[in-house]
Amino acid sequence: MKIFSAEQIYKADKATLEKQDISSEELMERAATQMFNWMHVRMQGAPVKIHLFCGIGNNGGDGIALARHLFEHGYDIAVYVVKYSDKRSNDFLVNLERLKDRKIWPVFLDDKSDLPNISQDDIIVDAVFGIGLNRTPDDWVTKLISHLNDSKAFILAVDIPSGLFTNCVPENLDSVIKANYVLSFQVPKLVFFLPQTGVFVEQWEVLDIGLDSEFLMKEETEYDLIAKSEVLQFYRPRTKYSHKGTYGHALIVGGSYGKIGAVTLSSKAALKSGSGLVTTYIPECGYQILQTSVPEIMVLTNGKTSLETIDFDIKPTVVGIGMGMGIGERTAKALTEFLKVNKLPLVLDADALNILSKNKESLKYLPEESILTPHPKELERLIGKWKDDFDKLKKVKAFSKKYKTIIIIKGAHTITFYQGKGYINTTGNPGMATAGSGDTLTGVITGLIAQGYTNMQAAIFGVYLHGKSGDLALEKTGYQSLVASDIINGLGQAFIDLFKVPEQVSEQQEEDKKENVK
Ligand SMILES: NC(=O)C1=CN([C@@H]2O[C@H](COP(=O)(O)OP(=O)(O)OC[C@H]3O[C@@H](n4cnc5c(N)ncnc54)[C@H](OP(=O)(O)O)[C@@H]3O)[C@@H](O)[C@H]2O)[C@@H](O)CC1
Ligand SMILES: Nc1ncnc2c1ncn2[C@@H]1O[C@H](COP(=O)(O)OP(=O)(O)O)[C@@H](O)[C@H]1O
Ligand SMILES: [K+]
Asked: Which residue intervals define the domain YjeF C-terminal in the entry (predicted)?
């Protein structure tokens, strides 16, 4: 699914009005009707007080139109107009008149008004600001927003939580609505998926308001959201007369005394994601551990307790390198010397990244489309400190362009970056914030490249599968007991799940499942 910028959404809006020959007020009515249906199906006329806080732009107009539908179906509503500006959008005014025609008189709030009473059992509809927010709200609006957040009432945000910008992180986080649920028109917004702003969106769902499909299809976006339908197209079926040689040979390099587990996890993950053969290149101290714990894997050794050189006679398809490797002088030198001569596709993780961060000149030896999989701290070592999430994305984009690498920014909603475009993952859960889960990801991606997936496909698909496997494992383990080995063991189910009944876009169901686990 594409993630459009605010400018693109306004363009889509315009294209829709022209192509479908409808007025903007009709489009607003579609949006309001969709929201009403969404609420009505769930509330079934329940006598809960619904407070609708509406701005004076089109987001406010959506809220006012929704209020009319709720009133007509007998809901107990209170409507407030938040007068943060003297301007009024036309469609807001049209809908305000319609509301007044029905003898509903909103409470007009300004900097002198008292804060309204809200009980924690009420529902708040947040239609104060939408994607048109372009400056920090006034102090009194911030106070109102904090008051709504403090009320503990369920907050349903229209399009985007008020106070969130679409292209930067707000300076004052008190000015942002903490939405329990966001009904986002047609497309999700990038800020739903970034750590600093995503926390304001507990759950979200897209409402189809019939924006021009041709425009949506043709328009290129800087970010895509990756779910099952996006990765299914990459899937490479196995053929009847294939043999293990058909599925490549993954070489996993790393490990040091006390950190043989890291390479063990990566190697096993490479195997379990379908690599025909897997060899692990480790110091001698890991030999028995590897051979005993994963008999399917071949082992090469070098150095006693850490790697001293990296050279081998075998001809692997791809190399995954760095897990538990250490950053000792000899090992660092071994990595640099290896990079100078290496021509194989690379997946670099952990200490390989830490060594490169200290020897940035060695980055030039990376083959094009090498995959780097840093966690936040490793990323900071590579690209330097960032001011906020948007600054981070800018820096990653520049880095990935400069070195022609694929960078996977790991975390909740892992983002894979290449050639200026970001692919945002939708699978995974906080249970995966556990030792070794990153090592597992490196193994999965390396295993996919071994089988013939392109580096980009392997990165995007690998991140998806890894997260999906974590989600499936979660159902049996709960958050706290999920460990990296559970992710490896769940990989089979993650592949099988690809061909289960199509996802009925179930962010909601997925969230419910995770809720049940809590
Ligand atoms: N295609 C779609 O998806 C559809 C979208 N629709 C809806 O439209 C919404 C966008 O509406 P919108 O453009 O009118 O902007 P909105 O967010 O209501 O802000 C209003 C104005 O406030 C101003 N302003 C900004 N910041 C401010 C501040 N801090 N303090 C004070 N004032 C401030 C600024 O005006 P300015 O003063 O800068 O001229 C701004 O224009 C969208 O989120 C969705 O709900 C649907 O109706 C149907 C189809
Ligand atoms: N809150 C979270 N939600 C989803 N995925 C997560 C979350 N926290 C961590 N992960 C995933 O777990 C992995 C952690 O990687 P990393 O920190 O490198 O672990 P390690 O170094 O222990 O192997 C990444 O793939 C990351 O995306
Ligand atoms: K809003």
From this structure: 227-498
